[in-house]
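Priority: medium. Attachment 1 of 2:
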């Protein structure tokens, strides 16, 4: 493609060329183009694809580890297992450590492949709380190895807390935050940010929009103020605890400087303590004044010399007239 990769060596003998790549990784996979030229006509080229084989790797985020469904025998649950791998990846499913018999009409498997992504979906028909609320295991395997993921089938419930709650950026009146969603409890979930500061009477709450956003900017904050932020998830059944076991994220907003009615970030100040653009303006003005002062001195000095010369000539003429009168 368009990326450059480090290559081991290129060997050319007579009219053939061999490219050898050592310590191959997945980054080396892609299309390579070989060009040949003898300086007479336009170069000829041929393109070939390098396929790198690797062990299956399953996706294992929180959204892949739990599936929720009603256990009244009227609903169908879908457990999804997705792996990357080359060559072809095959899947096996277990429940409570026992291999699932896919001939049983209560279980159906569908597989799909797109590039090196392989997906297996296990459908559990007429979910029973007694029979099916359990741990299912998905194993992805090819000729190079395998990977395993445990998926828990549970009843619909309130969502799990988000995780990895952190700061993206901060200004004088806003804070941008991010997090990783937890399991949604089997229903559409949304997020809510809670914050307070030392002079607040009670907690402030902001509902995140759009619903599936995992990054959000809280606005309307005060400059140079320390705030404490938390985030949790909600669905139709209830709400989760706060992210990272209720940890509070403490952030202080940036300061502002007001000059001629304009608010400027304190980070735009020059070392002199003045805004950068004003420092530049003052520097230019000072330079102009210095030039004008130099020109004034030059022309003033020239005018003084001319004045002294004129006075000397006038005095010489007067002396000459006196001398002639004496004669």
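Attachment 2 of 2:
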């Amino acid at each position: 493609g368009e990326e450059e990769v480090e290559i081991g060596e290129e060997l050319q003998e007579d009219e053939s060329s061999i490219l050898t790549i050592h310590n191959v990784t997945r980054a080396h996979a892609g299309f390579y183009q070989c060009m040949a030229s003898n300086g007479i006509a336009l170069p000829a080229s041929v393109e070939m694809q390098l396929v790198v084989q690797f062990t299956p790797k399953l996706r294992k985020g929180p959204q892949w580890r739990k599936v929720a469904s009603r256990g009244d025998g009227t609903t169908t649950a879908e457990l999804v297992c997705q792996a990357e791998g080359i060559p072809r990846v095959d899947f096996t499913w277990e429940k409570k450590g026992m291999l699932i018999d896919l001939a049983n009409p209560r279980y159906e498997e569908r597989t799909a492949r797109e590039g090196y992504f392989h997906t297996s979906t296990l459908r559990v028909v007429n979910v029973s709380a007694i029979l099916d609320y359990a741990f299912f295991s998905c194993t992805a395997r090819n000729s190079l190895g395998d990977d395993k993921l445990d998926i828990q089938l549970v009843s619909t419930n309130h969502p799990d807390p988000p995780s990895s709650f952190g700061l993206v950026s901060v200004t004088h009146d806003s804070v941008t935050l991010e997090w990783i969603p937890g399991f949604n409890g089997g229903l559409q979930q949304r997020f809510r940010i809670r914050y307070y500061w030392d002079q607040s009477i009670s907690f402030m709450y902001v509902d995140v929009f759009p619903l599936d956003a995992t990054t959000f900017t809280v606005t309307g904050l005060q400059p140079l103020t320390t705030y404490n932020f938390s985030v949790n998830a909600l669905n139709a059944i209830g709400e989760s605890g706060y992210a990272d076991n209720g940890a509070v994220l403490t952030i202080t907003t940036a300061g502002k400087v007001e000059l001629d009615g304009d608010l400027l970030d304190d980070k735009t100040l020059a070392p002199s303590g003045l805004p950068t653009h004003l420092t530049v303006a003052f520097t230019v003005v000072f330079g102009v004044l210095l030039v004008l002062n130099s020109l004034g001195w030059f022309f003033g000095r020239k005018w003084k010399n001319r004045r002294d010369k004129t006075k000397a000539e006038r005095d010489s003429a007067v002396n000459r007239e006196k001398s002639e009168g004496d004669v």
